[in-house]
Design goal:
This is MFS transporter. The protein has three domains: about 5-215, Growth Hormone, Chain: A (Up-down Bundle); about 225-440, Up-down Bundle (Growth Hormone, Chain: A); about 440-498, no CATH class. β1 and β2 (about 405-410) form a beta hairpin. It is about 75% helix and about 5% strand. By secondary structure, the protein is mainly alpha-helical. The protein is built from 18 helices and two strands.
């Protein structure tokens, strides 16, 4: 096990390392499933957490992002990202194991306050490790494989997430129904299992090769300021921050809206979330391949309008009088949500890595993470402050057709957030136009390429004669476009040395 950066990494070492990175992602994803999200919230509620304390749990991941500045200093001082990432990931897993062991070692001492303190340090150490890991992956993964690699990693992680979430939820429900006195033990056991899986992740990282980084000599704050002086990167920060604000103004209240306004059972809401995840899993490989072949900005330009449609559509989901129609509409928009978020999240992550200079990648990526985290944190807080105001304002517009009244607009409460969030998201796309990315292709050409690819699949499945009759008028044009795109495939685009 070599703990030192390597001057050169062979193809064999690279391929082996990428497999370890995927395995690390799967073990870390399992840890996240067991120790955060729905199961953490359920545990906190069972322990008697107040609404304010639940808000603190939700804010911890973004509040601690500022500690990524410490990672920049550590990488600058030691120039060994493997050791820094592994050491702080190890420290981040210890609080999870402590939460799992405390009820066994100290009866009755697990409190909300202790849980908050332990998770606070877990997130601090995790953020320091994460910033170092991003810089490490920037140098390890070749630029032309960035999209396809992370799409594959994300697809496998999401599949594991769905499977584990369902199995764990069924297990928790079984314990609550048959052994209610041991419910808290079930939750702490999840933390213990998550901590152990996190330790496995550390072992996998220690075996992953690290290219030798270029030393950074300036002071941390000076390096951080330099990233903000980069006009192109600053444009990316402006877009990503406004986009994050728009999404987090609306999306945290979707579940509340479906439960309270529409009146769906909790199982339906969870089921719709799973449909969205499955849609994401199905499409993320496609977006990964296209981001490598064309550009991340192009993928955002295609997927973002779809996601904005998803946000705006929520404002009108309560209009149909039939619950069956409402449910069908919700299924459709969650499918759109999954396929669009798969492309957006992948492209936003990759474009930040791509635009960051190799020498100072950790600084640029940390700056991006902090700005986005700040926007993501204040958005739901602003939404909460405005909730009472919108709750008392109702906009209703209907028309009479053949003696029957048909609602066209019915806005109240959370609906206003969805409209405002959608409008702000549209405004953020104006800022995206200022971002320059090497290898960028106009989205119209990519859409035509996608239609041509779909047509080729149809021709193989349905037969050349039938498909030619359906698409004959546009085959010549599509082939011409595909030829143009083939000439623009990124030979000479940004490539990273591994």
């Amino acid at each position: 096990m070599n703990l030192h950066p390597s001057e050169q990494i062979t193809n064999s070492q690279l391929n082996s390392g990428l497999k370890l990175v995927i395995a690390d992602g799967l073990s870390a994803e399992a840890m996240v499933v067991f120790t955060s999200g729905t199961f953490l919230t359920a545990m906190a509620i069972h322990m008697g957490a107040t609404n304010f304390q639940l808000g603190l749990f939700a804010a911890l991941p973004t509040f601690t992002t500022i500690f990524q500045l410490a990672s920049i200093w550590l990488v600058q001082k030691w120039n060994n990202r493997k050791v820094i990432t592994s050491a702080f990931n190890l420290l981040a897993r210890l609080p999870l194991i402590a939460i799992g062991l405390m009820p066994l070692l100290f009866t009755g001492t697990t409190t909300i306050q202790v849980l908050l303190v332990l998770l606070f340090f877990q997130h601090i150490f995790g953020d320091i490790a994460g910033a170092s890991w991003n810089s490490w992956m920037k140098d390890l993964i070749p630029g032309e494989r960035l999209g396809s690699f992370f799409s594959r990693r994300s697809r496998m992680a999401q599949t594991l997430n769905v499977t584990l979430s369902l199995a764990t939820a069924m297990g928790i429900d079984y314990v609550k129904a048959h052994y209610p006195a041991h419910e808290i033990t079930a939750y702490t056991t999840l933390f213990l299992a998550g901590g152990v899986l996190g330790m496995l992740s550390v072992f996998l990282l220690l075996r992953t090769p690290e290219p030798k980084p270029t030393p950074m000599n300036d002071k941390v704050l000076k390096l951080f300021g330099r990233s903000l002086k980069d006009k192109n990167f600053r444009n990316l920060l402006a877009f990503n921050s406004l986009w994050a604000f728009a999404l987090n103004l609306a999306t945290p209240f979707f579940a509340v809206f479906m439960l309270k306004t529409i009146g769906l059972p909790l199982s339906y809401v969870i089921g719709l979330g799973i449909i969205s995840q499955l849609s994401s899993i199905a499409f993320i490989k496609i977006w990964g391949n296209y981001s490598d072949r064309f550009s991340n900005k192009t993928i955002i330009n295609i997927c973002a309008p779809l996601y904005i449609t998803y946000i705006l559509a929520f404002a009108f989901t309560a209009l149909p009088s039939s619950k069956l129609i409402t449910l069908a509409v919700l299924v459709a928009i969650h499918i759109v949500s999954g396929l669009s978020t798969a492309g957006i999240n992948l492209a936003l992550s990759n474009i930040g890595i791509k635009l960051a200079p190799k020498k100072e990648a950790i600084v640029y990526i940390s700056a991006k993470n902090m700005f986005v985290a700040f926007s993501s944190t204040i958005a739901p807080m602003v939404g909460g402050l405005l909730a009472d105001f919108f709750a008392n304002h109702h906009l209703l517009y209907d028309v009479s057709v053949a003696g029957s009244s048909v609602k066209l607009v019915d806005l109240q409460g959370w609906n206003y957030f969805f409209i405002i969030g959608g409008v702000l998201a549209i405004a953020s796309l104006k800022l995206l136009k200022r971002v320059s990315e090497q290898g960028e292709t106009h989205k119209r050409k990519v859409r035509m390429h996608m239609r041509a690819a779909l047509r080729n699949k149809l021709r193989k499945n349905l037969g050349r004669e039938v498909t030619d009759n359906l698409y004959a008028p546009s085959i010549a044009v599509s082939r011409k476009v595909v030829g143009m795109l083939g000439q623009k495939t990124p030979h000479g685009r940004f490539r990273q040395s591994a």
